């Protein structure tokens, strides 16, 4: 029986937010190849993906974890080049929670973290759906938090975790596409299962997924406690709290840190731990109950 082959192609898009670049994963069991996260719209990256195909191999499907430009933007061009359909939960914003839908309708805006508003999959997946592709069974798990339409893909004990759980840093959670309550729930869902390896959207393969997922969860619990402690002296907004909490963070990463703090504040307010006048925004001042 042909064994499953997993290959990593790293896109040439290193940055403070992408580490050494976006990971594109190729899965194959014979001649049919699945591409997970084609990556940014770079002709050189597409050429590298196609050059990795062995004689007789073809791309059967393109799976996208979420509609961020560094993960999904190459999907249309790669689909045209290979004839393979693009599969995802849906376009940017699909799967958004009722809380974030309400806050967005009230005027809450995002932080401009590269949503791919043009992304439209050929086939929309549902949570828990099992895909039978290329002799493989791939489970699609809706894991919102980093983004509303985020999926993880699982097969044979491998977890392709996209940007929900990465191998090099914690994830950006920027409302209204990001949702801290949903993020924590998604981590708990993944923590409840045993994984052989975690293959993230950025960084290296994680050989102890359980420990990594627990570390990420504890990190967010610690940040939540820091937010509450920083609110104890006096009410404050996300920018003020970020300066108090992220004292050693490089300046280039402070805008992302502020979005994470805002996500914690909105989640804490939703859980009635803190309060703020409505409508809520990035500049809202929050206080303890």
From TrEMBL:
Domain Metallo-beta-lactamase, residue spans? 21-202
Gene3D superfamilies linked to this entry: Ribonuclease Z/Hydroxyacylglutathione hydrolase-like, Winged helix-like DNA-binding domain superfamily/Winged helix DNA-binding domain
Q: Which SUPFAM superfamilies match?
A: Metallo-hydrolase/oxidoreductase
Task: Tell me which domain of life the UniProt entry assigns to the organism this sequence originates from.
Answer: Bacteria
Question: Which InterPro entries does this UniProt record tie to the protein?
Answer: LACTB2_WH, Metallo-B-lactamas, RibonucZ/Hydroxyglut_hydro, Sec-metab_biosynth-thioest, WH-like_DNA-bd_sf
Q: Which Pfam families does the UniProt record give? A: Lactamase_B, WHD_BLACT
- List the PANTHER family: ENDORIBONUCLEASE LACTB2
Q: What protein is this chain from?
A: MBL fold metallo-hydrolase
Q: Which organism is it from?
A: Fuscibacter oryzae
């Amino acid at each position: 029986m042909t064994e499953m082959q997993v290959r990593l192609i790293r896109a040439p898009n290193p940055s403070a937010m992408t580490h050494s670049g976006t990971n594109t994963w190729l899965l194959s069991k014979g001649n049919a190849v699945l591409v997970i996260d084609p990556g940014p719209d770079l002709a050189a990256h597409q050429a590298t993906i196609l050059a990795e195909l062995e004689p007789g191999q073809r791309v059967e499907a393109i799976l996208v974890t979420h509609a961020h430009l560094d993960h999904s933007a190459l999907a249309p061009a790669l689909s045209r080049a290979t004839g393979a359909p693009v599969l995802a939960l849906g376009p940017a914003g699909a799967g958004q929670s009722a809380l974030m839908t309400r806050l967005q309708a009230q005027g809450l805006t995002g932080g401009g973290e590269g949503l791919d508003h043009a992304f439209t999959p050929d086939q929309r997946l549902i949570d828990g759906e099992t895909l039978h592709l290329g002799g493989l069974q791939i489970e699609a798990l809706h894991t919102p938090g980093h983004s509303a339409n985020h999926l993880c893909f699982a097969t044979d004990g491998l977890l392709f975790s996209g940007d929900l759980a990465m191998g090099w840093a914690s994830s950006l959670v920027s409302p209204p596409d990001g949702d801290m309550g949903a993020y924590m729930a998604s981590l708990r869902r993944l923590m409840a299962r045993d994984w052989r390896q975690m293959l993230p959207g950025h960084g290296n393969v994680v050989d102890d997924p359980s420990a990594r997922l627990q570390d990420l969860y504890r990190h967010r619990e610690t940040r939540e406690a820091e937010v509450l402690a920083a609110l104890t002296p006096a009410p404050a907004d996300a920018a003020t709290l970020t300066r108090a909490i992220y004292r050693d963070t490089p300046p280039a990463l402070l805008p992302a840190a502020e979005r994470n703090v805002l996500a914690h504040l909105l989640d804490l307010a939703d859980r009635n731990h803190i309060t703020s006048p409505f409508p809520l925004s990035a500049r809202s001042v929050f206080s303890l109950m």
